[in-house]
Amino acid sequence: MQTKLIIVASLILSLSSLVFPAYTSCAADSAEKTKAAPPANSKTADKKSSADSDDEDEDKSDKAKSMKDKSDDGDPKPSVTEHTVMIGGKVVRYKATAGFMVLKDFSSKKERDSDDKKDKKKDEKEHKPLAKMFYIAYTRTDVPDAQKRPVTYSFNGGPGSASIWLHMGGLGPRRAVLTDNGEALPPPYRLEDNAHSWLDDTDLVFIDPVSTGYSRTEPGEDPKKFHGYDEDIESVGEFIRLYTTKNKRWMSPKFIVGESYGTTRAAGLSDFLQRRYGLYLNGIVLVSAVLNFATLDLSAGNDMAFSLFLPGYTAAAWYHKRLPLELQNKPLLEVLRQAEDFASKDYLQSLFLGDRISAEDKQSTANKLAGFIGLPTSYVEQLNNRIPDDIFFTHLLMDRNQQIGRFDARYTGLRFNPGRDVFDFDPSFEAVNGPFTATFNDYVRRDLKFESELPYETLAKVWPWSFKNAENKYVNVADDLRKAMIKNPYLKIWICCGYYDLATPYYAAKYTVDQMSLDPSIRRNIRLTYYDSGHMMYVTKPALRQFKSDFQTFVRDAVLPDASAVPSAER
To answer: Which one of 85, 203, 262, 494 is most buried, counting C-beta atoms within 10 A?
Structure first.
């Protein structure tokens, strides 16, 4: 995300360094050396024989335990538990699997020899483990043919985010309890059955990329080898291949759900999975999408981004009643249509003119822009009609000593330093961070019976993130998605946008799709759905219900043989 996603990095928490103390027994060893050797009689020999026997029994016990804790292929055995949940008024029976998938070096013997000539004793029958990726999978058990059921792979973004947000907020069978408006209740927090889970329509696999959640590299492996656009797609793609293979899901309809940077990953995977493994998907769900990073970079010389943020600013100003009465009294969608028209025409043209714009036209643009975003005209003029997002977050409600949310502009929080331009924290993130983190850490141990002393990294420190695939240019995975759709004309894409999302604005997603140069026969495979919500639209009950209903329509269209005849959903 380059400039814009670095803002996300300010929210990212640092990984805890685990230091294991080394214990020595030098004094005891020294004492043993000073003792005289006992006489070699039958009694001492019997004692030695008994001790050796005890050691052998202990070794056998340890080996047996090690074998018990590992699967047939040598990987750690996951925890498997049985559960039921009510979805749509019906009982759904399922098993939950929580554990690790080991990523291994599957290079040829010749390649390994050339890379590591010094290691002559290496067992060539074993493939070198590189990392353990944590996952939680839900598989329905009350259906006649489980292999024909869709399977959906889900992850969040960051980069550096675990899959906890989609898992515990929208898709999984259990969710963190929030108010209907998506706000945290006082701690301690609790879980509830998710009556709008996707589990009745598809099996679910939640993936934590390397360094997030409980996922870690193996000893001696540098985590940075997984911290990059290409490396991340390759590792997550390998996980999907392994899970699909080990669980015999090659003949199942397959879907991917990604949120935020996870949409970047999902779009990249669409082409990678086809090229590398011949694994073709039925559908991809992009929640709060960012496919072209240029649309998020509010910096000098990139004026398009300012026009794409404007309708999102308008939605926030309308919600907080900061618009002129002639706009404030109109329904949100009508106001947004006017904002979009201004953003794509008069406003964009004025930005294009730069210093060539007349003083009169610049003043007129400032007046209109101020009317759409709820800031004073004089301040808009000082900013040269270009409003950075952090300025908007801190200034819209500055007279109240409040800042608005980045992930969801409807949320507000008090300022650390009133009157300053610094964006202190994101109130919309803090509203969900505590409930999601606490309930997950309890749930994974109490209900799923998975034990680990590792900290579950909801937001891991993975920066600097490598974008070597896009040096001296913006990352744009929309073209990867276009190629995947051309090669697989049955692939359906569903993009979900929140009006109040100021991290990945809805109008930027719409613009990106409009610029994909798709043939009309393929363009109809993309649908955009808009929610009266923010970045994590599923945290509010009304949007959660709509999210579920819209997915049921999408999955039916993507699996049926004649799905290509279904027209795209329009706003």
So the answer is: 262
The residue with tokens 């706000």 is 183
What SS3 state is found at 174? strand
289 beta partners: 260
The continuous run of DSSP H or E covering 493 comes out as strand 492-498
Average pLDDT of the residues of the chain = 86
Whole-prediction pTM: 0.84
Q: What does the DSSP 8-state code read for residue 559?
A: H
Sequence ranges of the domains in the chain: 94-115+125-294+434-565, 301-428
Residues, the chain: 571
d(CA 223, CA 469): 19
Task: Assign a CATH topology to domain 94-115+125-294+434-565.
Answer: Rossmann fold (3.40.50)
* 88-106 tens-digit pLDDT: 999 999 999 999 999 998 7
Burial class (CB in 10 A: 0-12, 13-18, 19+), 363: middle
Residue 368 and residue 327 in contact, taking contact as beta carbons nearer than 8 Å: no
Please state, in angstroms and as integers, the Cα–Cα distance from residue 103 to each residue in 132, 267, 282, following that order: 6, 22, 25
CA 556 from chain centre, in angstroms, equals: 24
DSSP per-residue letters across 84-115: EEEETTEEEEEEEEEEEEEEE----HHHHHHH
- pLDDT of 62 above 50: no
Find the farthest-apart pair of alpha carbons in the chain and give their distance in angstroms, rounded: 110
3-state class (DSSP) for residue 419: coil
